[in-house]
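Long-time lurker. I teach an intro course on protein structure, and each term I like to show students one example going from raw sequence to a predicted 3D structure in C-alpha coordinate notation. This year I'd like something fresh instead of my usual example. Would anyone be willing to generate the C-alpha coordinates for the chain below so I can use it in lecture? Attribution to the forum is fine with me.
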Amino acid sequence: MPSYSLSHLSDRVLLRDLASLVATDRTTTASLLAHLAEVEARQLYRPAAYSSMLAYCVGELRLSEHEAFNRIHAARTAREYPVLFAAIADGRLNLTAVRML
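-- Reply from a regular --
Happy to contribute to a lecture. Here you go:
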Protein backbone atom coordinates (compact mmCIF):
# COMPACT_ATOMS: atom_id res chain seq x y z
CA MET A 1 0.00 0.00 0.00
CA PRO A 2 1.47 3.37 -0.96
CA SER A 3 2.39 5.86 1.72
CA TYR A 4 1.06 9.37 1.29
CA SER A 5 3.38 10.92 3.85
CA LEU A 6 6.04 12.80 1.90
CA SER A 7 7.78 14.66 4.70
CA HIS A 8 10.90 12.52 4.25
CA LEU A 9 11.47 13.80 0.69
CA SER A 10 13.90 16.60 -0.02
CA ASP A 11 12.50 19.76 -1.58
CA ARG A 12 14.23 18.96 -4.87
CA VAL A 13 12.84 15.41 -5.03
CA LEU A 14 9.36 16.55 -4.00
CA LEU A 15 9.24 19.18 -6.76
CA ARG A 16 10.69 16.77 -9.35
CA ASP A 17 8.16 14.09 -8.43
CA LEU A 18 5.30 16.59 -8.55
CA ALA A 19 6.24 17.73 -12.06
CA SER A 20 6.50 14.10 -13.16
CA LEU A 21 3.10 13.26 -11.70
CA VAL A 22 1.48 16.24 -13.44
CA ALA A 23 2.95 15.12 -16.78
CA THR A 24 1.75 11.56 -16.16
CA ASP A 25 -1.69 12.84 -15.19
CA ARG A 26 -1.99 14.77 -18.45
CA THR A 27 -1.07 11.78 -20.61
CA THR A 28 -3.33 9.53 -18.55
CA THR A 29 -6.20 12.00 -19.00
CA ALA A 30 -5.71 12.03 -22.77
CA SER A 31 -5.67 8.23 -22.82
CA LEU A 32 -8.74 8.07 -20.59
CA LEU A 33 -10.62 10.37 -22.97
CA ALA A 34 -9.58 8.28 -25.97
CA HIS A 35 -10.84 5.15 -24.20
CA LEU A 36 -14.12 6.80 -23.24
CA ALA A 37 -14.64 7.98 -26.82
CA GLU A 38 -14.00 4.52 -28.25
CA VAL A 39 -16.18 2.74 -25.68
CA GLU A 40 -18.98 5.16 -26.51
CA ALA A 41 -18.48 4.77 -30.27
CA ARG A 42 -18.72 0.99 -29.92
CA GLN A 43 -21.60 1.33 -27.44
CA LEU A 44 -19.86 -1.10 -25.11
CA TYR A 45 -21.92 0.22 -22.22
CA ARG A 46 -24.99 -1.56 -23.63
CA PRO A 47 -23.82 -5.17 -23.08
CA ALA A 48 -22.99 -4.10 -19.53
CA ALA A 49 -26.71 -3.22 -19.15
CA TYR A 50 -26.30 0.56 -19.10
CA SER A 51 -28.54 2.78 -21.19
CA SER A 52 -25.95 5.50 -21.76
CA MET A 53 -22.28 6.29 -21.46
CA LEU A 54 -23.07 8.58 -18.55
CA ALA A 55 -24.85 5.79 -16.69
CA TYR A 56 -21.91 3.47 -17.38
CA CYS A 57 -19.37 5.97 -16.09
CA VAL A 58 -21.34 6.60 -12.93
CA GLY A 59 -22.40 3.01 -12.27
CA GLU A 60 -19.47 0.96 -13.52
CA LEU A 61 -16.52 3.35 -13.28
CA ARG A 62 -17.82 5.08 -10.14
CA LEU A 63 -17.25 8.60 -11.43
CA SER A 64 -19.45 11.37 -10.09
CA GLU A 65 -22.07 12.63 -12.53
CA HIS A 66 -20.10 15.86 -12.86
CA GLU A 67 -16.82 14.04 -13.59
CA ALA A 68 -18.53 11.70 -16.03
CA PHE A 69 -20.34 14.48 -17.89
CA ASN A 70 -17.19 16.59 -18.27
CA ARG A 71 -15.04 13.68 -19.41
CA ILE A 72 -17.63 12.36 -21.86
CA HIS A 73 -18.07 15.82 -23.34
CA ALA A 74 -14.30 16.24 -23.69
CA ALA A 75 -13.97 12.73 -25.16
CA ARG A 76 -16.63 13.46 -27.78
CA THR A 77 -15.00 16.75 -28.71
CA ALA A 78 -11.54 15.18 -28.93
CA ARG A 79 -12.87 12.32 -31.03
CA GLU A 80 -14.21 14.92 -33.46
CA TYR A 81 -10.93 16.87 -33.35
CA PRO A 82 -8.20 14.28 -32.59
CA VAL A 83 -5.47 16.92 -32.29
CA LEU A 84 -7.02 17.72 -28.91
CA PHE A 85 -5.76 14.44 -27.43
CA ALA A 86 -2.14 15.54 -27.93
CA ALA A 87 -2.93 19.05 -26.71
CA ILE A 88 -4.32 17.61 -23.48
CA ALA A 89 -1.41 15.18 -23.11
CA ASP A 90 1.21 17.90 -23.39
CA GLY A 91 -0.64 20.45 -21.26
CA ARG A 92 -1.62 22.98 -23.94
CA LEU A 93 -5.28 22.34 -23.08
CA ASN A 94 -7.12 21.06 -20.03
CA LEU A 95 -10.58 19.54 -19.63
CA THR A 96 -12.16 22.91 -18.87
CA ALA A 97 -10.76 24.42 -22.06
CA VAL A 98 -11.93 21.46 -24.15
CA ARG A 99 -15.38 21.68 -22.59
CA MET A 100 -15.62 25.31 -23.71
CA LEU A 101 -14.97 24.41 -27.36
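Some talking points for your students: The chain has one domain: 11-100. Residues 11-100 form one domain.
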